[in-house]
Amino acid sequence: MEVGMLPISASKRGKLLAAGYTSLHSISRASASQLATDIEVSEDEACEIRKYASQTSALDRSIGNSSNTSNLYGGQTAWTMLNEEKFSTRITTSCVDLDNILGGGITCKEVTELGGVPGIGKTQIGIQLAVNVQIPLEYGGLGGKAIYIDTEGSFMVERVLQIAEACIEDMPEYSHHFHNNVQDCEVKMHPNSILENIFYFRVCSYTEQIALVNYLDKFIEEHKDVKIIIIDSVTFHFRQDFDDMALRTRLLNEMALKLMKLARKFCLAVVLLNQVTTKYIEGSYQLTLALGDSWSHSCTNRIILFWNGDERHAYIDKSPSLKSASAAYSVTTRGIRNSNSSCKRIKMV
Amino acid sequence: MANKLIKQMGLPNSIANIFTARNIITAKDALSLTEFELMEQLDVGMAEVKSAMAHISEVVCPPCQTALLLMEQRVRDERSAGHLPTRLRGLDEALCGGIPFGVVTELVGPAGIGKTQFCLKLSLLASLPENCGGLDGRVIYIDVESKFSSTRLIQIGIENFPEIFLKKGMAQEMAGRIVILRPTSLSEFTESLHHVQVSLLQKQVKLLIIDSMAALVLGEHDCGASRQQALGWHVSFIKIFTNSNSSDKSIRSHSIKKEDRAAYDSHLVAALGINWAHAVTIRLVLEARSGQRFIKLAKSPISPPLAFPFNITSSGLVLLDDDGIEMKGSEINTIHCQGQKALFNSEW
């Protein structure tokens, strides 16, 4: 039923059908005052209904017209997207091997999920990214701010300070890589200014988490230079206190859609940290990421962190454009670094 | 925050009344429905639902702080919201001062390794006056297995701080700051947590020790999902009021023995499973390997995994080496325990 597509309340829809308006065409043909008397609503509401009807029917008409595909309501051609993708910015993780398998770093405009056993370094990677997003443009970074949403209370400021100081010390290395000539850039940042650009929210229940994701739209409008949102971890509040699993799936899906919308609208990266759980597969218990199978579909990219002997590894489990590969990384006092270098500076190949 | 009434949020009256009419009273009710469901239930258009939800979300959402503000707060409140020094130099250095406030710390280890001894010493340290390096506060000790021994507590006090404890009346005052609760079941424990919340706000409680979590649950539930669910609420609760009152929490966990093939070495697994392991912020694992006891900093956001050898003397836990050995890989989370035979052999 075409009238069913209009975003109006159910009772208004019922009234339209009862009054004989079964197609959008019939609604747009009638005048606003006629509509108002027929379905017993005010003139303003009738105007609104007619506006919705004409918008939706315009969409219908243009689908039939294939020569004007680029004017489709809200659509883009693949060619324009290709140009965008080529120049899309990435946020480095400070570990060259990890950056390589990610194609340069964490991509903006996409939702990336990182999951692993406790103690593997998820929070560490989150903090490293929150610091790295602030690397100035002259050094090949984004010069942006970060939003860190903490659901577990594992954000330790002392550690952020450590990583921030180490990042500032290592910045000349970034400029060598970026400019390819030996030029000593004078830009010196202070660790306090790095701390100032990380917006921190402490969330204590799933209600607050959902409310916060809703509010982020307005927040980022006011702080346009936010370039990364990190949620650590997205699972914690959804794993306890939920009797209705179907409700949980619906809420998580809605949250994932909102986050994807934010990523695309403001061109920022969304990084979600996830926990693991045991699942009974093929006769044995195995570790998989929490929140279930429906959630697995929600993120664009999925990286699993695990122990391989004595080393920490990251494995790209799911991505539309990156090859499945794994890389080793290590967590040092200076943050996330390559695993085989005994010296703590980044090796530029 | 989640239980805020929609009526009091400053929404335009028309929409606020519709919410009440459909029995959506608190913010939690509203946020537990997707926008589509709300549209159907409230019988209003999508645009109105979106703007009402945006308003409700803004009100319920937690306040924004910057990392710089957090740092300044930490530095300023180092005394009351910083760390509890454990007086084990290597451990304190690794933890940037001691057991941090506002987070949950877990102690795991096999039977008889020294967990209760460590907790006794911590409760003593928290009750000491500030000029001796204590917190000058009260301690609530939830003792499920009846392991708390006041005699031992006083003995540790006398050995470590003779100048305080041998003074008249001091021992009584220090010991008087430690309140011991003995719940016998999970429901009693839940009740006592609620009572604790009230007294935390009224009195100067700086440390909460729960000894032990696993003992509460092991008796009542089967393995796996139901046990984790039962504890899930407790974890959230403890975390929330830990944070809001910024007092220190320290929880001890039991361990189950899992028999391995080797005769003298058994590998143990922490009792409460992986869900719990994610929930705590700092995890200290106590174990015994080749006759030597180790305390491992297995999970911590500020330091690499380090292991310190220790002994138990009349003055409590004493570290033998303050530098610590760094561990990698699976070593971090495994818990070694010598079989009874081997321990006896190595001592005699």
From TrEMBL, chain A:
<dbReference type="GO" id="GO:0140664">
    <property type="term" value="F:ATP-dependent DNA damage sensor activity"/>
</dbReference>
<dbReference type="GO" id="GO:0005657">
    <property type="term" value="C:replication fork"/>
</dbReference>
<comment type="function">
    <text>Involved in the homologous recombination repair (HRR) pathway of double-stranded DNA breaks arising during DNA replication or induced by DNA-damaging agents.</text>
</comment>
<dbReference type="GO" id="GO:0000400">
    <property type="term" value="F:four-way junction DNA binding"/>
</dbReference>
<dbReference type="GO" id="GO:0008821">
    <property type="term" value="F:crossover junction DNA endonuclease activity"/>
</dbReference>
<dbReference type="InterPro" id="IPR013632">
    <property type="entry name" value="Rad51_C"/>
</dbReference>
<dbReference type="GO" id="GO:0005524">
    <property type="term" value="F:ATP binding"/>
</dbReference>
<dbReference type="InterPro" id="IPR020588">
    <property type="entry name" value="RecA_ATP-bd"/>
</dbReference>
<dbReference type="GO" id="GO:0033065">
    <property type="term" value="C:Rad51C-XRCC3 complex"/>
</dbReference>
<comment type="similarity">
    <text>Belongs to the RecA family. RAD51 subfamily.</text>
</comment>
<keyword id="KW-0227">DNA damage</keyword>
<dbReference type="Pfam" id="PF08423">
    <property type="entry name" value="Rad51"/>
</dbReference>
<keyword id="KW-0238">DNA-binding</keyword>
<keyword id="KW-0234">DNA repair</keyword>
<keyword id="KW-0547">Nucleotide-binding</keyword>
<keyword id="KW-0233">DNA recombination</keyword>
<feature type="domain" description="RecA family profile 1">
    <location>
        <begin position="87"/>
        <end position="276"/>
    </location>
</feature>
<dbReference type="InterPro" id="IPR027417">
    <property type="entry name" value="P-loop_NTPase"/>
</dbReference>
<dbReference type="GO" id="GO:0000707">
    <property type="term" value="P:meiotic DNA recombinase assembly"/>
</dbReference>
<protein>
    <recommendedName>
        <fullName>DNA repair protein RAD51 homolog 3</fullName>
    </recommendedName>
</protein>
<dbReference type="InterPro" id="IPR016467">
    <property type="entry name" value="DNA_recomb/repair_RecA-like"/>
</dbReference>
<dbReference type="GO" id="GO:0033063">
    <property type="term" value="C:Rad51B-Rad51C-Rad51D-XRCC2 complex"/>
</dbReference>
<dbReference type="InterPro" id="IPR052093">
    <property type="entry name" value="HR_Repair_Mediator"/>
</dbReference>
<keyword id="KW-0067">ATP-binding</keyword>
<keyword id="KW-0539">Nucleus</keyword>
<dbReference type="GO" id="GO:0007131">
    <property type="term" value="P:reciprocal meiotic recombination"/>
</dbReference>
